[in-house]
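Section 4.2 – Deliverable D4.2 (structural model, holo form)

The reporting period included a commitment to supply a predicted holo structure for the target in complex with zinc ion. Inputs used:
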Amino acid sequence: MTTYAIDLGHGCNFDGGAVGILKEENVINVVGRLVINKLLQLGHEVIEVRPVTANSTRHSLQQRCNTANAFKADVFVSIHANKHKGQAHGTEVFAISTKGRALAAKVLRNICSLGFFSRGVKNGSHLFVLKNTAMVAILIELFFLDSTKDVALYNAEKLATAIVEGLTAA
Ligand SMILES: [Zn+2]
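Output (structure tokens):
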């Protein structure tokens, strides 16, 4: 059994995330809930780390890290979706550590098997939640919310299954 800290990005009073053809917050909530339920069904422990309220983005992010660290989660997974003026598409997963990058690669490969373009595993050393969590940590940018190609491929159930299989692969 593994303890997963699942970070549903944004969704904290003032912070609703990006808006493209789809809204980041809706995608995160739907895919994230499915990921959580699937992990629980497999017998893993899940800690949801998104705070209810925050005074600032930094406070929002710090609370997520504090919760994951306090519960000594084994793995931290932050779920986001991307936006770039309709000029980009595909999936990218950020990590810092060697273990994080290995896990990111598994999740990325699985998501891209659904047809999303692989933008690669990227260095997440600028990302607050990756820098300030004590465990293996990845941040998934599922796809581009403003890409018609990506939105056509979007299927929450398939995405969640791909993520969970990537996370739990031996
Ligand atoms: Zn985001």
